[in-house]
Amino acid sequence: MTRYLLAGGGTAGHVNPLLAVADRLRETEPDATILVLGTAEGLEARLVPERGYELLSIDRVVFPRRPNLAALRFPMRFRQSVDRIRQLIREREIDVVVGFGGYVSGPAYLAARREHVPMAVHEANTRPGIANRLGAQLTTHVGTAFRATRLRHSTFVGMPLRHEIEALDRAASRADAIRFFGLDPAKPVLLVTGGSQGALSINQTVWAAAASILGAGWQVLHIAGSRWKRLDSELAGYTIMQYCDRMDLAIAAADFAIARSGAATVSEFSALGVAAAYVPLPIGNGEQRKNAREQSAAGGALIVGNAEFTPGWVTDQLVPLLEDRALVADMAARAKTVGVLDGTNRMLALISGARAEATTIRPVH
User: Which CATH number describes the domain made up of 3-161+342-356?
Assistant: First the structure.
């Protein structure tokens, strides 16, 4: 019986691939023990127990980016985290550590190294985070979600996707999706999404430009997020909601999408052949724009800057594209050429390789 410790958390970009791998491990190795290392503040604090896994929480230790008091305290706090994880590895007799980035992964990699436990790393973004850059120095079993990611020892595996996305047959599910959202089966669907909290600039632009999209013969399925309160549109064919707990059906309904270019969104759309106009998040280190580049280069997506994504851009650039249904279909086919649906299994093969190279004799403590 193998005992896994999966480390990651903070954001959905770390938690969702972690849970996809955990679910597949549970499916393929029913007798395995799967533990998750995270913090009490991240999304994992809710999502991991909901999925039926035990969460081992440690304190959140942030890598300092500038000299200040927190930077002075960092070395001691980081060592304490490493020591705590080493203790957990010994107490729980962990056989392999798998990291997905985030605050807990860095100390987890060092703890695994010092306990002579094999490890594997998955990097979801095209621009690797600090923790995974560290992990890639300590193991040769490194998987990336994007081909363009530059990380030592890395192999492209794709994004571990949720089972409902992996198994989705968009064509077969379209009729159910249209009924679920109350859409018109005779019109193409523009899906708009900015993530669970939404994207204000996307919401404002689509709200203002909805009439021109509808005038092109399309209908809009707009998932606006928890912070958007204007849900009272009277335009026929414009469906707007705050939440959607069936994103698989939303994707099944979509003929084109407008979205942020988070790693999971780009990976799901490309794997399933959804053409899109991506509006990268304008803050951070630019990884969202990088995430969308491969699909864009293949001809399966547009990338438009946040400041340029205006009602005028929708009218002048997007609407003429939507009116060319053959071009939309071609973009969808091109999107699918860069996507992969088996990222979960590819990552499991990488983990299996790490485990196979494990030292057979554990250190004595």
Answer: 3.40.50.2000
